[in-house]
Amino acid sequence: MDNSKNKTRQIWDTRNSRIFTPCMETHVSFKEIFSVTLILFSVIDIIGSIPFIILIRQREGRIHAEKATLISAVLMVGFLFLGLSILKLFGLDVASFAVAGSIVIFIVAMEMILGITLIKDDPDAKGTGSVVPLAFPLIAGAGTLTTILSLRAVYHEVNVLIGILLNLVIVYGVLRSSSWLERVIGKSGFAVLRRVFGVILLAIAVKIFKTNAL
Length: 214
Known about the structure:
By secondary structure, the protein is mainly α. The protein has one domain (8-213). It is built from nine helices and two strands; from the N terminus they run H-E-E-H-H-H-H-H-H-H-H. It has a two-stranded antiparallel ribbon with strand order 1-2. Strand 1 (11-13) and strand 2 form a beta hairpin. Helix 3 packs across helix 9, helix 4 crosses helix 6 and helix 4 packs antiparallel against helix 8 (157-176). It starts with a helix and ends with a helix. Residues 1-24 have low confidence and may be disordered.
């Protein structure tokens, strides 16, 4: 018997530049889901963003957890399937997108370190802080979106999608708990954490900029 008949037919996926078998199209791998979830959790770093979430809550009066999570979900899931096409539509590349996101992160970091307000709130548009800069670029920022594109080239789309959804559940839980977290941390603890994580955010912004612009 021809050995080729005993082997699963391999198909070359030009979109992802990888070889996969037909059964992988609907295959759910818990190992892949676990890997994707951990990678995105590290990149999003919602725990490390708690001081900034509290800062937004103090400025806005409340955190619109549902709105921030929904917009983040639209950006992340949309970028998973349409990311490259959207960027090409506007004549952009991933590097340019990442640099733009790094500039916004830089401004946010300076706010946290210096205790100043650079991103002015529109008095007629309360709650916008839950969109910018919370949903973008803090949660679904350039780092997260470019990571999603990278994961799409390595793991199957369904597993990346599940990993995104699991992270969004964690994000929603943290956002909903912002008032409780503020009470637990306290004003003095918040002041220290805000500056510490501001420096970390600043370093992330510089790294993204250096990687994609230099």
